[in-house]
Amino acid sequence: MALRVQAFGECILAKKTFLDFEQPIAELELKIEELRYVQSESAVDISQEIEQLSKKSQQLTKDIYSHLNAWQITKIARHPERPYTLDYVNELFTDFVEMHGDRHFADDMSIVGGLARFNGNPCMVLGHQKGRDTKERAIRNFGMSRPEGYRKALRLMKTAEKFKFANI
Predict the structure, then answer these.
(1) How far, in Å, are 58, 116, 132 from residue 29 at the CA level?
(2) Most CB atoms within 10 A, among 20, 24, 33, 83?
(3) What are the two backbone dihedrals, phi and then psi, of residue 84, each rounded to the nearest 5 degrees?
(4) CA-to-CA distance for 125 and 31, rounded, in angstroms?
(5) What are phi and psi of 115, to 5 degrees?
(6) What is the pLDDT along the chain (168 residues), one digit of tens a residue?
């Protein structure tokens, strides 16, 4: 189960979703945010304490993530704030033009693909998109591909091969 750290007085401090085994990290992050809030509202300089707690948080994160069991790793893979294909496309690529349809039946919205530029070089980007909210997930079939999605991906890969573009 995910834990959302939210309030300190009237101010919302953090909106990061923490998993159950990340509880100690969440508590430490909340303390850091509280100290930052206090420092911004008063003339007291507590930047050294904030820096010390930040280092402690980083070390605690390292320790927790170095000793995960299989179920905890699965929870991380299914994390609600994990980036999806379009998040990577927006950050890594320029001139992205999404291509739709399999040219036989329909367009599978769970498969995202199109032409883009990576470091100035043209390439074909392919991936699946699950959706962030219920409406988007319904449109994208909860990230589960249909046969037309596989045909769409194959068509895009063949197009990339034809024009000698890299498939990413």
Answers:
(1) 10, 38, 24
(2) 33
(3) -105, 180
(4) 41
(5) -85, 145
(6) 444 444 444 343 445 788 889 899 999 989 988 888 888 888 777 888 888 999 999 999 999 999 999 999 999 988 888 899 999 999 999 999 999 988 889 899 999 999 999 999 999 999 999 988 899 999 999 989 999 999 999 999 999 999 999 999
What the chain holds in terms of domains, given with CATH numbers, is 2-77 (no CATH), 85-167 (3.90.226.10)
Amino acid letter for position 99: M
> Which residues make Cβ contacts (< 8 Å) with residue 87, sequence separation at least 6?
none
pTM over the 0.85 mark: no
CA atoms of 166 and 155, how far apart (whole Å): 14
